[in-house]
Amino acid sequence: MSGSEGLLSVDYEVSGRVQGVFFRKYTQGEAKRLGLVGWVQNTSHGTVQGQVQGPAERVRELKEWLRKTGSPQSRISHAEFSNEKPIAALEHADFKIVK
């Protein structure tokens, strides 16, 4: 059933204690484990933002992880998702940490 849903793209921004706690590294690891592509980066205002793409069910799993889990030392106060849309093909080859 989940295979028939197609590919999804979504942008995200996570607030809380998410910088200096390996949040980007753990996000990259979780995304790769789920077979997703995209990117993650720190922002100048203390949040982490990025984009994730892949099978819809897997994207939903990462959204839940970004909302509730994060890295072991992180404290997530809010996760916001925007521009969620179906896509015909992946726009990224891998999941990268952007400096």
Which key features would you list for this structure?
single chain; 99 residues; alpha+beta; five-stranded mixed sheet; 2 helices; 5 strands; 24% helix
How large is the count of helical segments? 2
Shape: globular
Give start-end ranges of low-pLDDT stretches. Answer: none
- How much of the residues is beta strand, in percent? 35-45%
How is the biggest beta sheet arranged? 5 strands, mixed
Distance between the termini: 37 Å
* Class based on secondary structure composition and strand pairing: alpha+beta
Helix content: 10-25%
Strand order of the largest sheet: 4-1-3-2-5
- If you average the pLDDT, what whole number results? 95
Order of H and E elements: EHEEHEE
Q: Give the number of DSSP strands.
A: 5
Gyration radius from CA atoms, angstroms: 13 Å
